[in-house]
Amino acid sequence: MDDCIFCKIIRNEIPNITIYEDDDIKAFFDISQVTPGHTLVVPKKHVQNIFEYDEELAQKVFKKVPMIARAIKESNDKIIGMNICLNNGEIAYQSVMHSHIHLVPRYSSDDDFSMTWGDNTGKASNDELNARAEKIKENLEA
């Protein structure tokens, strides 16, 4: 896609600090550096979100995430954890519509990154949960 910022980064039309690159992916520092070492793992094939991945692309992209995450962690002995985020759609906080996985190193509970979750425990009955599960199972591809 000609006007996609990540496609431009992949083609090196926009300056970037690349951490890893092969035929299928590029990993580079997020310009925001939410925490030091914040890295994006991006498929070179333009897909908007996880819903556009086929099995082959998923294998190529996701098999590299642990290797890159370990390299980031091993680069700084102050890193004590890491959030790995893949936002899909504006409602899920995706701001660039080219799929990308955030690797956010964590240094402490005060390192300017947070994720909050609502707790809906007990709001759905077991029958409702089972009905939801069945609808999902009906749509799984073998």
CATH class: Alpha Beta
Order of helices and strands: HEEEHHEEH
Sheet having the most strands: 5 strands, antiparallel
Mean pLDDT score, rounded? 95
Number of helices: 4
Give the N-to-C terminal Cα separation: 31 Å
How many structural domains are formed by the residues? 1
Q: What's the CATH architecture name?
A: 2-Layer Sandwich
Helix content: 25-40%
CATH fold label: HIT family, subunit A
Detail the poorly predicted runs.
none
Give the DSSP E fraction (strand runs of 2 or more residues): 15-25%
Alpha-beta content class: alpha+beta
Total number of β-strand segments? 5
Radius of gyration: 18 Å
Q: In a nutshell, what does this entry contain?
A:
The protein is α+β, with helices and mostly antiparallel strands and 142 residues long.
Written overview of the protein:
It comes from Companilactobacillus mishanensis. The structure is a single chain. This protein is an alpha+beta fold and 142 residues long. It is 26% helix and 18% strand. The chain contains four helices and five strands. Strands 1-2-3-5-4 form a five-stranded antiparallel β-sheet, covered by helices on one side. The chain is globular.
Secondary structure layout:
Blueprint: H1 5-10, E1 18-21, E2 25-29, E3 39-43, H2 55-62, H3 65-74, E4 81-85, E5 101-106, H4 126-138
Antiparallel strand pairs: 1-2, 2-3, 3-5, 4-5
